[in-house]
Amino acid sequence: MPVQVRPGLPNNVMIIETQYGRLTVVKRHGSNKRKEKLWLCTCVCGKTTIVKSHNLMSGKTQSCGCLPTGNKRLGLDGSKFSRLTVLSFHHTDQWRTAHYLCKCDCNNEIIVSARNLKTHRTRSCGCLKKEADNNRNGINNPNWNPDRTEQERLVGRNIDEYNEWSLAVKQRNNFTCVACHQRKPGSLASHHLFNYHDYPKLRTEISNGVCLCYQCHMEFHNLYGRRNNTPDQFYEYCRITQ
Predict the structure, then answer these.
(1) What are the tens digits of pLDDT across the range 4-36?
(2) One domain for residues 84 and 54
(3) What are the distances in angstroms from CA 185 to CA 167, 189, 212, 238?
(4) C or N: which end of the chain has fewer Cβ atoms within 10 Å?
(5) Which helix (H) or strand (E) holds 237?
(6) Which residue range forms the structural domain that includes residue 14?
(7) Does a structural domain hold residue 217?
């Protein structure tokens, strides 16, 4: 059996086959640039590692990394973080961050890092986000338009042709609002000159679209509504804006 040596003993006590924590010294491994002695050690888990004399003697390094050091592994068993209850320690990753098996209030289980639990970055198994998304559907959505009919809401605007049309319109206008002339990638809408509902044959005609920022797009429809829109209305809106 390897001999258990207490931290704090002088370097000359260090001998081959002495055990420090989970590490057993195998042989000398030269010195580093600071001329500190290095030792090749084997860990209880079977891995090998190179450790400085000081780190072995002080107890700073007690394993190859399989044993979290400092406050990496926290006593979180039974703790509650939002909807998650910590069941048990699960593993330590390559950055020595502890991960825990948690149970959500909805009974699903999930593995979460201690960092994400303590910072509340992860608050559920994912059910919290789904509920939030569901609460933004329909009339609860901030973009809900009460003037639209149920038939209009069922019109499939997520078809591939429509998505391609929308992107092509924005690219043609260099991702710039043609009304206020501001370039706002990510905050743009493709507006139909002849409105979407009343002119189905023109829905994916690039010539029937112009690029507007969200603000101008909203202002246009606030002025002219969402039915029977025409290019003349759009040109009039541009004159008013300018």
Answers:
(1) 444 444 444 556 788 888 889 999 889 888 888
(2) no
(3) 11, 10, 11, 20
(4) N
(5) helix 231-241
(6) 3-58
(7) yes
